[in-house]
Design goal:
With 165 residues, the protein is of the alpha/beta class. The protein has one domain (5-150). The protein is 42% helix and 19% strand. The protein has five helices and five strands. The protein has helices at 5-18, 47-56, 71-82, 88-99, 129-149; strands spanning 22-25, 36-38, 61-68, 108-117, 120-126. A five-stranded mixed β-sheet has the order 1-3-4-5-2, with helices on one face. The chain is elongated, with a radius of gyration of 21 Å. The chain starts with a helix and ends in a 16-residue tail after the last helix.
């Protein structure tokens, strides 16, 4: 879903305060590595419904994190694909695709709300479609970089799984 997360970023803290929640300003991505239960954003996109669940569990503290899209995100990917062995056509395609994201610099690209209940973090996370497209380009490039880093084990009959001693 293509959302304007900047509006929600301004709206949510007021809603939290008005409903008696303490807001802990977290860093985006800080929840990685913890046991998470993700909210079904597709079926229930309203953050207020998520926070109603938090209230009913007796939660008083809500983790709140946002992230703005930066030019450095694009620049880093550009540097990576420029160091790869790509045809001119592929390189132009990546340049064009990445250039399209320049219009989103400074725009909120991720918003997370979370609360702890019984040693699990319940998470409401939103990302606009354009940012998911950017992440897909990033994953595509990372996958291609992995392919470039592979050794030539395919040239050998046993594919490098066994010693060649």
């Amino acid at each position: 879903m293509d959302l304007n997360l900047d509006t929600l970023k301004r709206e949510i803290p007021g809603y939290l305060e008005a409903n008696g929640f303490a807001v802990f300003r977290s860093r985006p991505g800080a929840l990685e590595g913890f046991p998470l239960v993700l909210w079904d954003i597709e079926s229930f996109p309203d953050y207020q419904t998520f926070l109603d669940v938090a209230r009913k569990t007796g939660t008083a503290v809500i983790l709140f994190a946002t992230r703005e899209f930066e030019a450095a995100d694009i620049d880093d990917l550009t540097e990576q694909f420029e160091s790869m062995e790509l045809s001119r056509e592929e390189q132009r395609d990546y340049e064009k695709r990445l250039r399209a994201f320049r219009g989103y610099e400074g725009v909120t690209c991720s918003l997370e709300l979370a609360f702890d209940y019984n040693s699990r973090l319940y998470v409401y996370e939103l990302q606009p479609d354009w940012y998911e497209d950017f992440v897909n380009v990033e994953e595509e490039l990372m996958s291609r970089m992995g392919d470039d880093d592979d050794t030539d084990d395919d040239d050998h009959p046993l594919g490098g799984y066994y010693s060649r001693n």
